[in-house]
Amino acid sequence: MRSESYDVVVLGTGPAGLQAAIHAARAKVSVLVMGRDVKSSLYRAHLENYCCLEKVTGQEFLQQGIRQASDAGARFLHEDVIRSIGEDDGFTIETESGRTIRTRSLIMAMGISRNRLGVPGEKEFLGKGVSYCVDCDAGFYKGVPVAIVGNASAAVSGALTLVFYASEVHLICGNLEVAKKLENQVRASDIKLHENRAVKEIYGNAAVEAVRLDDGSRIGVAGVFIETGAKGAVELAAALGVELDSEQYKYILTDDDQHTNIPGIFAAGDITGPPWQVAKAVGEGCVAGLAAAKHAKKYR
């Protein structure tokens, strides 16, 4: 398995992540940025309320940020993270292709998940069988059948985790869009793969009992995990013990230096809460990048 080491790893290629990478790299530490800019919520949008810039497309804005970060010395890896592990002197990150990456400082800037299925029963059974976090809730489904919905790394890696808990795991997806290693793992497992299918309804009485697919078929399950993108900040944060807001359990709490409750982990951008503005994301990214670089230098 390939292993690499960096002083700072930035998760996310949106405005917060790119600004963090620029400032960390200019602080003369090694920086790796992970993610895909096309998955940023800004990529297909336009920007017209950012100080000193005329109206530009989100794609143009992000590509310029990538060039600036690269020129400053940051490296880019266009892969999703499937697992993060805290250690005494840093963190280990595992990617979808099987790479292992070590870092002293970790910056979470992946934004927040806005992906919902929008099907009947999804809202009604939230917390009663519907979950958006395998790492958070897998333990509640020991010995019962579950479904997981999505075709990217979060769903596939989540399904591979659920086989250790659930009696039966159904992966409901379109075309799989993951690294070959992950695809091979899921096809070689006991996971029941429903390709080119979509969930049309989640139903039950007091809790989830089944899902109905677009071909009319019914699958009896006690839980439905909705993981429609890359593994998000909440899932990775939960695995590392990062403190989230107590009301909605969806935002990472930070101090004035964008430091979380875990030494060496920083957060910036939408994942720290509203307002959902590029100006806020860039400002927090700047602070997080400088603070993360300072933390990493302690180990030199």
From TrEMBL:
<dbReference type="InterPro" id="IPR036188">
    <property type="entry name" value="FAD/NAD-bd_sf"/>
</dbReference>
<dbReference type="InterPro" id="IPR050097">
    <property type="entry name" value="Ferredoxin-NADP_redctase_2"/>
</dbReference>
<keyword id="KW-0560">Oxidoreductase</keyword>
<keyword id="KW-0285">Flavoprotein</keyword>
<dbReference type="InterPro" id="IPR023753">
    <property type="entry name" value="FAD/NAD-binding_dom"/>
</dbReference>
<dbReference type="Pfam" id="PF07992">
    <property type="entry name" value="Pyr_redox_2"/>
</dbReference>
<dbReference type="GO" id="GO:0016491">
    <property type="term" value="F:oxidoreductase activity"/>
</dbReference>
<protein>
    <submittedName>
        <fullName>Pyridine nucleotide-disulfide oxidoreductase, FAD/NAD(P)-binding domain containing protein</fullName>
    </submittedName>
</protein>
<feature type="domain" description="FAD/NAD(P)-binding">
    <location>
        <begin position="6"/>
        <end position="285"/>
    </location>
</feature>
